[in-house]
Write a structure and sequence with these properties.
Layout lengths: L4 E6 L5 E8 L2 E9 L5 E8 L2 E9 L5 E6 L6
Antiparallel strand pairs: 1-2, 2-3, 3-4, 4-5, 5-6
């Protein structure tokens, strides 16, 4: 299996939009998305490109707002 490679994507203004890791260009492990002001928007885990487990959505202050349990898609 290939090693995980750190991944970051930026908003057009240069602020951090997403951070996580990939294996063979497929999202894996813990990921976070951010608003342009730097507050966290969403976070959760991927396994082989599929969202798994609990995913948290954050309010405008970056505080947890909602937790969604992702269904296992038969992996």
């Amino acid at each position: 299996m290939a090693d995980a490679i750190p991944f970051e994507k930026l908003h057009k203004d240069g602020s951090l939009w997403a951070r996580g890791q990939t294996v063979d260009d497929v999202p894996t492990g813990y990921w976070e998305w951010f608003r342009k002001d730097g507050t966290k928007l969403r976070s959760g885990h991927f396994q082989k490109g599929q969202q798994i487990g609990e995913w948290t959505t954050y309010d405008a202050r970056g505080e947890p707002y909602k937790v969604t349990q992702m269904r296992n898609s038969g992996m």
